[in-house]
Amino acid sequence: MQTQELISIASQVRRDILRMVHGCQSGHPGGSLGCTDLLVGLYFDAMNLALDSTNNQVVFNMSAMNEDVFFLSNGHISPVLYSVLARRGYFPINELSTFRKINSRLQGHPTPHEHLEGIRIASGSLGQGLSVAIGVAQAKKLNKDSSVVYCLMGDGEQNEGQVWEAAMYAPHHKVDNLIAFIDANGQQIDGPTEKIMNNRDLQMKYEAFGWKVLHVDGNDMAELQLCLANAKKTLGNDIPIMILMKTEMGAGVDFMMGSNKWHGVAPNDQQLEEALSQLSETLGDY
Amino acid sequence: MSIYTYETKKDTRSGFGAGMEYLSLTNPKVVALCADLIGSLKLEPFIKNCPERFFQTGIAEANMIGIAAGLSIGGYIPFATTFANFGTGRVYDQIRQSVAYSGKNVKIACSHAGLTLGEDGATHQILEDIGLMKMLPGMVVINPCDYNQTKAATIAVANYNGPVYLRFGRPVVPVFTPDNQEFMIGKAINLIEGSDVSIFATGHLVWESILAADILKEKGIHAEVINIHTIKPLDTQAIWESVSKTRCVVSAEEHQINGGLGDSIAQYLATSMPLPQEFVGVNDSFGESGKPADLMDKYGLNAASIVEKALKAISRK
User: What is the ipTM of this complex?
Assistant: First the structure.
């Protein structure tokens, strides 16, 4: 897909995120806005998804057999995942209005418990997604399925010990059909990551564990497309790939960028209006 | 003399190993994971038969649970194996989120449960695992009583679609249930019929309950002994039928009284047929180092304690 088209979809997804979080006055807009370009780039361009041959629409199979699959480990940025899944055709766009409300399939954090198409594992309690992604990648190898497994984690999430158990495991077991990302926005709830729990040099850490590490500006769609294409070419060499993705929390809305203030805060009516005025309604609001 | 006899004693974990060996040859979807305890879990035959379906995770149980969940998404039937302490309490949140809440077809199969792990002491002797696992919505909890039943249970849970906690142990215990039995998840087994007291036992305490019934018989008391190998879902029909006759209850388990089998039975009876009940189990304490038999005696997990509690239950009718 053309870069400009992806940028246009991302604008709509950002509007969805803001409207969803505003609608229930809860949720996590900051990281969702920061990772919007990645999820749009994956689901609308990089990933080979299972399609219905009669109408070319996406179809959801839990097993993800013979299709690329994405796991969101930092489940609190569910708004961006829900919007991208709906816009890609997994479930009705209007369902986004139920986010975090009672009797909704769009729980605060993603879960397959409510049978929402596109969700294969619950996430929210941090640090577990990379392990799950590795398991799916190993199942694909057993199934002689050459498709790719993607996994996104937060940089604050790197505090969790299980992440490093998985980091040790994947290169040891030559899980080379896996591309993981860290959303390096430098922020976590209590403040900048370097003040709360310094990750120091994540490139050196992952390289020492045996990963190939790439870098990308996660809010530059053209650069993201190039990086994802390069990463895919590097697969199959016994080595898993980690992409350190620099993003801006709140990207796309000027007053939400540059701090951790909007990690888990919903905009009020005025703030929503101001934010939406900065983002074109390219596909029609839900 | 009891109607039950045995020729050999074997460990239940070897029953698990035998079940896995059978599955290695018969079910290509079964995969095994282990956190650096292959020998203790008796997985060597499985690994020998299908090395590509075995995943060594190293001493990293949290990651093991996540990988198992992922393998299940890809259509496999993972058995995540380690000691019961490390496979339940240590990774409770991973099991809760990635397995139970996510509804994954993962089997958490754990050895060295309870006091009978012996000399390693309380750090390894988990007595809370049944409670932890039964509290998770949708989790099946199974604690078979001997080698043959553990082998059968292992094969049965592979054919069941959903999360299961399968608990077994280290010491050799009498092999008294039939070879090649069919294991019915959630179906209690009436071992000895009686009319004076119902003894509901699980795991290693089932054999002790048979011994207790023999002792009670000498006193002219007819105890009914029922093997509750599946703690969840609980076979409430079997319990109801038994207590309708006997009108009093003893539960027996190698576990904390809090949160164990006895708790589940009491909860059921309180809402259906409140009756005198006595509990054989560990009473709100940790274990300690020692020989398994000495520990079971010290903590009152033996036939003598079951007899004592049965007499008390009968006296409260």
Answer: 0.97
